[in-house]
Amino acid sequence: EMFFPEEAHAAAPADFLQELPSYRSVLRRRAGPGGGHDPQGSLGARAGEARGPQPEGAELDARPLREHALSIAEKRRDYQQANIKYLSGWNQWKRTSSKSWRKVLKDIKESLSYLQLWRHDIHSIEGKFGTGIQSYFSFLRFLVLLNFLIFILMFGFVTFPTVISKYGIFNSSFAKISPKNTDSLCTVYTPSGNKGLVYFYTYLKDLLTGTGFLETTSLFYGYYAIDAAVLRDVRYNFPLAYLLTTFAYLALSLVWIIKRSASGFKRSLVHDEDQFQSYCNKVFAGWDFCITDLNAARLKHRSLQYELQTDLEEERIKRKIADRTMKEKLRIYSLRIFLNIIVLAVLLGCFYSIYKATAFSQEKSNVSIRCDLRTDSIKFQYLPSMVITLANFVAPQIFSILIRFEDYSPAFEIKLTLLRCVFVRLANIGVLLFSLWSQIHCDDDNCKACGYNYELYPCWESAVGQEMYKLLIFDFMIILAVTLFMDFPRMLLVTHCSWKLVQWCGLQEFGISDNVLEIIYGQTICWIGTFFSPLLPAIATIKYFIIFYVKKISLIHTRKPPGRPIRASSSNFFFLVVLLIGLVLAFIPLGISIAHIPSSKACGPFRNFNTSWAVVPHTILGFPTGLQMVLNGIASEAFAVPFFMVVCLIMFYFIALAGAHKRVVEQLREQLVMVRFDPLSFL
How far apart are CA 636 and CA 552, in angstroms? Predict the structure, then answer.
């Protein structure tokens, strides 16, 4: 038996570890081919110098910084102190200033986060019900902010200049030019305003339909019948401002949605690339160690639990799909084809019903108004809205029943159901507008004098705005009615009634796809209707603000969360994609109304132009000759074709760049897989 001195025994482990072949190979690898051999590591030496004189055994501290038993904050501080010694005074000042500025911006960002709308409510919902439901409420908050900004645009550039000009505020006035070369019949417009003694019922009817006293207010297009607002010596071209503000709110919506979609698309790509990496991130790096509050810790724990449940559910569905036999695949594909035929039949039935209801409503409502049949008038005016709402309620219920037999994953079920329901709702709006335009823009004798049916629609823009207003109000009433008269009584029955049938039915699930569809439908109506009703975004903002609390109360008290958890990363991106589809579809009716259908000659800012778009070339004619030539050149084919080719080349370049980045990421992932099985590579 051999004994060693105490000093040798204490130093042996360190010397022994440094003599290992694996440690020497790591040092040679760091030195690089042909490079100088630096067994101690320059970074560790710099860190040692920055810390000052070392005690006995300092030669062991001259190792690379990553091998020191220090916290991340201490390593970062040592690294910065080691490097800042070799910088000049100017570079040291720049680095210090940059660091201070970043810290100030970070503090401001953290402070502003506490002012975020519904911050605490959404975090609480995320912890209790998962990120899938939280994504719906975050989406609702986004639409509230978007509509508020649209309202600020329309009010600042359209409503406010009109109001101050008509009432002479700030020594302002307005110019009004009578239409030229226009039949006198086309300029007759007498809004159905209330005169004399008016019953309370009439005010209620006007509030619901947008007629009567509301028709003559700034809510609708017909109120803005000025050609220029004059503030002292400044002349405000109102028709051009009205059109440019319309383009501005559409461009704002498009840019904001694309920006949010891009960030969501990046997150969905990261998640879809490697399920194992996503699982590891949640298990080993999902916890936020900055949480000190017990309630916040519970919410975070529940959120992670829902995310893991979603991962396991998706893996179970994928394994089930992979284990299908050929016979099962043939059966499920045949069933899906049959069910899609049923879906197509439901869509065609909805479209035909809306078209017939709109034609019947316009015919009967005009007769009722002329005969002063108030009860019949409101019934016929709301007939298209009622039919559309009925179709929007029945069709999703049919689709939700059919989707259960198609055997898709939970995430794909939401996407497919949402696409079908969005197509129904948005197409219903399109059918309504098409049926209106078929009566506004006709080819018979009633349309020859003015280019549109001036007898039925002397101010057709206000009529379209009233239809959009009725759709928005009726949709809001239906959401409240479903919560108060369906969900709440059902919750009372389930809570206080022990019948087996009632307990079997249970509480209604909080369907994410249905609720997202409701707000996308309402937002599409707002985008289309804002041109015809400039204050409609204000109504939409108030509507969504109230809906947030209605849905929150419904989720907590009258409904239950979905039985199958939903992933938020893909849901957020898909919600924005569907919203983008709604925005693109809103461009079509607005483009037709602005560029194709003749503008009303009896109301609105475009009375003196054949179409609303005609104000643009008319304004360009007032520019200098050189600027006119530049603008005409930009609008010509000689500029459009090369510009399109350059855009295509840039797009192809970024596609190729994205493909190259994707290949690099795949190679790095392969290297990470190799690292898992090579423990020495961590040294």
Answer: 53
Average pLDDT, the chain: 75
Around Cβ 508, how many Cβ atoms within 10 Å?
Answer: 16
**Residue 580: domain span:** 121-273+408-620
pLDDT digits (tens, 9 = 90+) for 69-110: 666 667 666 666 666 666 666 777 777 787 788 888 887 877
Whole-angstrom Cα distance, residue 323 to residue 42?
A: 56
Instruction: Give a yes or no: residue 157 inside a domain.
Output: yes
- Give domain status of residue 307, yes or no: no
Q: Is residue 458 a contact partner of residue 554, using CB atoms and an 8 Å limit?
A: no
Calculate the CA dihedral of residues 243, 246, 250, 253 and round it to 10 degrees. Answer: 140
| Whole-Å CA distances, 240 to 247, 314, 617 | 11, 53, 10
Report how far residue 586's alpha carbon sits from residue 526's, in angstroms, rounded to the nearest whole number. Answer: 9
546 in Cβ contact with 224 (< 8 Å): no
Asked whether the beta carbons of 373 and 278 are under 8 A apart, the reply is no
Chain-centre distance of CA 351, in angstroms? 27
Question: What is the percent of the chain with per-residue pLDDT over 90, rounded to a whole number?
Answer: 9
Q: Is residue 322 in some structural domain?
A: no
Cα separation, 534 vs 151, whole angstroms: 8
> Per the domain annotation, does 436 fall within a domain?
yes
Contact partners, residue 297, CB within 8 Å, separation at least 6: 291
Residues 6+ apart with CB under 8 A from 144: 117, 541, 544, 545, 548
d(CA 279, CA 310): 11
Instruction: Give the tokens for residue 549.
Output: 């609390």
Residue 569: helix, strand or coil by DSSP?
A: helix
Contact predicate 30/43, CB 8 Å: no
Give the predicted TM-score (pTM) of the model.
Answer: 0.73
Q: Would you state the torsion angle of the CA atoms of residues 175, 179, 181, 185, taken in this order, to the nearest 10 degrees?
A: -150
Q: How many distinct structural domains can be found in the chain?
A: 1
Q: pLDDT per residue over 156-168, tens digit each?
A: 999 988 888 877 7
